Amino acid sequence: MTGPSFTYGSTFPSMKPATAATPAAGGDDLIRETTTQAFMKDVIDASMQVPVLVDFWAEWCGPCKQLTPVIEKVVRAAKGRVKLVKMNIDHHPEVAGQMGIRSIPAVIAFKGGQPVDGFMGAVPESQIQTFIDKICGPAAPSDAQALVAEAQAALDAGDVQTAVELFAHAHQMEPENLDALLGLADVHVATRDLDTAKKLLATVPAASAKDPRVAAVQARIALAEKTASLGDPVALEARVAHDPDDHQARYELALILAATGHEQAAVDCLIEIIRRERAWNDEAARKQLLTFFDAWGPKEAATLYGRRRLSSVLFS
C-alpha cells in the first residue's frame, strides 16, 4: 500500500467532536457511511467477503466533493465486486489518526480484513477503475459483451444475419455498450442499410463521440454513399486496361473494391494513380487513401499495407 503519510489533497484542520454518522446519499448495500464504532463490522468484517474501499472525507474538503460522485459511479458500475464505505474524519477522526492519514481525500482498500492499497486525491474515473481492477481482478465479460464477441465471430464467418441478431440483442441488453452499438451500425453499413446505421450513430453518448471507432463507422458510411452511384466494376476495369491513364476509372474502381472488401486491391489502384500523376484532381487519390485508413482503422492490415506503399511512392 502507498505510505501512510499522504502529501496532497486538503490538509486536515482541527477535528470536531465525534457525532453519529448519517446514511450515504442514495445509500444501498454497496455504498454507506460508517462510524468508529461500526468500522469493524462495515469494513474489517465485510472485507472478508468482498474488497471494501474506505473513503476518508470531510465537508470542508473541495477535492472530496469532486471525488465522491466519480468513485460512487465506478463502484456501482462494478456491480458488487467492491463496496464503498465513507468515513467523515471530522465526526470520526480515530481511524484516520491510527492509519497516519494526514490529508484527504484518501481512499484505502481493505481485503481479507487488512489494508492492501490506496490512493490520494480526486483522481479521474479511469484511474479509479484501474485501481478496482487491481484490487479485485479484471471484471468478467458481461452477457452483452459475450454476445458482441459471438456477433463479431459470426460476421467474420460471413453469417451476416446471425451477426445482426446478436448485435441487436446485445444493444437491447446494454444500450450504453459502445461495442454493441457500433457493431450493429457496422453490419447495417455492410448490408447498405445506411439510414439505420446513421440513426444508430446518432445515439452514441456525447462522452464517446470522439472515440476513433465512431469516426471509422462514419467513414464507412461516407464510403458506401460515395460508391452507391458508381458504375460496373467490369466496365471500369476494361477502361483502365484500354487506357492506363484513365485515372477517373481507376479511382472509381478503387472505391468499389474497398466497398466490397478488396482493400489491398483498392490501395493498389490509388497508389498507381499517385505514381502516374500525383496532383490529379487535387491529389484525390492520396486524400482517398487517407479516408480509407480512417475507415479501416490504424491497426488493420490494409491500413498498414497502404501506409507502407504510400510512403514508398511519395519518398522514392
Could you explain the architecture of this structure?
The protein has helices spanning 39-45, 62-77, 94-98, 125-136, 143-156, 160-173, 178-190, 194-201, 212-227, 233-242, 247-259, 263-277, 280-296, 301-315; strands at 10-11, 31-33, 52-57, 83-88, 103-104, 106-111, 114-120. The chain is α/β, with parallel strands linked by helices and 316 residues long. Residues 1-23 have low confidence and may be disordered. It is 55% helix and 10% strand. Strands 2-4-3-6-7 form a five-stranded mixed beta sheet, with helices on both faces. Helix 12 runs parallel beside helix 14 (301-315). The chain is built from 14 helices and seven strands. The longest helix is centred in the last third of the chain and has 17 residues, at 280-296.
